[in-house]
Amino acid sequence: MKSQEIGSMSHHMVVWICVCVEIILGAYGESCFTPSIYTAAPQEIDVGYVLSKVHVAGCASQLKRVETSDPDFAMHLDGTIVALHSTEVPSTGRSFSVWAQDTDGGQSKMEVYISQKSTQPPKSGILRRFKRRWSPPPLSIVENDMAGLPKDVELVGSDSSLAYSVYYEISGPGVDRDPVGVFTVDRNSGMLRVHRPVDREEWPQFQITVRVFDKLTNKQTDEPLPLKVQVMDVNDNAPTFTGSLKFSVLEQSAGAVVGQVNTTDRDEAGTDHTKIKYTLLDGNNLFSIDSQTGVIKTKTATLDREVKDKHFITVEIRDMNGASNGLFNTATATILLEDINDNPPVFSKTSHSVNVKENVEGETLLLRIPVEDKDLTKTPNWKSLFAITKGNETGLFRIETDPETNEGLLYLTKPLDYEKNKALKLEVQARNEAELSGTQASWASIPINVNVENENEGPVFMPANLKLRIKEGLPNGTVIGTYTAKDPETSSSTGIRYYAASDPASWIEVVETTGELKIANTVDRESDFVKNDMYNITVKAVDPSAKTGTGTVFITIDDENDNIPLLPTHDLIVCEKDGQLGSVVVAAEDKDKTPYSAPFLFKLGEPYEGKWTLSKLNGTAATLQQAGELPTGTYTIPVLVKDLQGMGDTQTVTVRICRCRLNQCVASQRSTVLGAGGILAMLLGLALLLLLCVLAAFVCVRGEDKLVLEDTHGSGGMLLKSNTEGPGEEVSNIVIVPSTGIDQSLVKGAVVDCGQFESMNTMGVADATSMAGAWQDSQQVSQQVFLHPSSDMLDRNSQYDLRAENSAFLLNQNSAFLLNQRDEATLQTWRTNGVYLDMKLDYLRSGEDGRYADDILHSYGFEGEGSVAGSVGCCSDQNPNDNMDFLNTLGPKFRTLAEACNKK
User: Fold this and answer.
1) CA 399, CA 385: separation in Å to the nearest integer?
2) What is the mean pLDDT of residues 691-699?
3) Assigned CATH topology for domain 460-558
4) What is the mean pLDDT of residues 608-624?
5) Partner of 865 at 20 to 30 A CA spacing, among 635, 692, 699, 766?
6) Is this prediction's pTM over 0.90?
């Protein structure tokens, strides 16, 4: 049984390889592999057939080149010998030589002997066992090999085949994984076969797993074998260009790096298949390229952008290190020349000339100066900078560049004077923003002639601005200076007249013929027309030809002690504090300057020297303090204030001592008893109001003319309203008594005889005898008076109102009469009174100030925001149940009211 297994194995196994002990040395030195091998092969050998695998003796990585003497066979650097063409092995055998060269230059030679494979067992009948290795060396196939497919690659046998009847299976990439179907294995012999070509660039190697099983039990008889199949590269990919082939370099630069050509090759790296050589097919006179790196450089300094700014060169890349059988590609590289400033701006003309009239206003464009520059436009190498290098020492001109045309723009900055200079010579230089490079040229300059044209000019003041210094308060007619002008052509002032063109305060008189400056009105340094002690006027000069010229006079005004310190605030409040004496600050102001103003001297006048003290707080204020406890009330205190020179006067301040809330006086919360003065004030106001009503009724009874009235409101009484005096409280507790028992037909169209209007005095009141009847008739009218303590006068703008529902007569906002009408006569009387009062008020309202009599009650004017007294509604914070003793100490509110009612 074992002999049959041995015979079967010898039938399927490849070749007998006889390694001769003969070692060929000599010129080849130490060999990298065995000197000779013997192998057996089929009579007909297909392309790609692996004849044998020579184990290189530790120098596979050093092999550089391997050649064979037989073109039908080749040996790879890993020692694999394969058939390149379909061939035969004669019965006598076949042989060829293999030469190998390593990287150090050493050479090795090997003889290969091929004999025809025998299909019969050995004649001796003796089976010889060879121990199989389960770990064969890495296998290889040639990429894209399509000849003789399918073809054997290698036997993979297991030592377990000596003890078992085995079969083989394989798995992995190329078998049952992508790419599926590349490899198979002979189930019985273990021969690995390849069935279709493989692209190394896609699948450089395959890792296959081989397993061996017992045919009887289907159990593995050996460990799985990882088998690596390397795909051998062939030069089937030409190198290609990567990246941009556009480069740039400065003009006139020799040996400068232009750029590097980048390439790639899909073939196996580290072999001649990917070793690329770079070559320039044209442009070799200007550029060069490194054959190994692809770096392009300039060869000459004659590259001129202004002559040719773009160059095209053809680059070839070839693998196999440029061998003729290498694959190649070509491409065109574009090289742009970058600009350097090797061309200065050049003037289009050799000189320029321009005419300009004298006295032309500044910032006038006189001339455009064109230049040419061959460098790249809109760059610092092209942009021009102009400078006036000569002739502009007085700053009459300036020059700048037009950014669009690159021209020089020459401007006149100040008016020219023909009488001083009839012609000017300038020199203008043109340069670039960037410095020159790569040229021996320099910046160019040209002359420019400026001719001044004469014209008739107006008078010119000498100097253009006159400065004077005076004291305020000079008497009128005082001469403070003389300001004259001259004709520029004649340098004479003959015939020139002078006028004040601008004199805001009308303080200065300009003498027309001489130009003298005199004081016309009192000069006040504290005036709003003076700024920083300076007052300016403008003087105009007119020559006989009506040409004009102006000049400015700056007048500095020195201060005089013409103002005394004043107290801006005269009404002060001292808030009572328990256990402390109150004080208040008295501040003064003086419009004069030092030494005619602060520090001020404050002194307390009689009769309060023992009750108050006055101490200095600072240079402009003093502290007024109680010398002892003083009762609540208002005090008028004289204070003498003097400036540093002793000028001043006694001024009066009103100080009110009171309880405060938020720094404002509040009324006392304790109960008070109404004093005699308060009662008399109330009775006097009530008597005046009653007298006014009686006199008005008496006038209507005495009237002779009939006045037709129409009640547009259907009211049975009369309601007169007065305008509100100002912010304060309104009295709204007026009782309205409806009219009863009155025939409404008597109201409409009633006629009242008021013919006695002509005999009335300025108050509209007739004599007592003519009003007696009216007074007696009105005794039956029930009267009810509501008088507000803060109103004691008749508003001259009061209006009347007729109402049928309630008969009420409202005299002003805070006081009213309620009259219940009893009969038609009374109704007529009150209507007549209302009409007359309305006419009288209209008369007073339309009259001039002189027509108001002293005995007319005037309205109380609202003092406005900031009044010390505040609102006249003094009783607004009193409870209804309080006593009226507060009327004895009403303070400045009612003092101000009294001053408005009674002329001093």
Assistant:
1) 9
2) 71
3) Immunoglobulin-like (2.60.40)
4) 85
5) 635
6) no
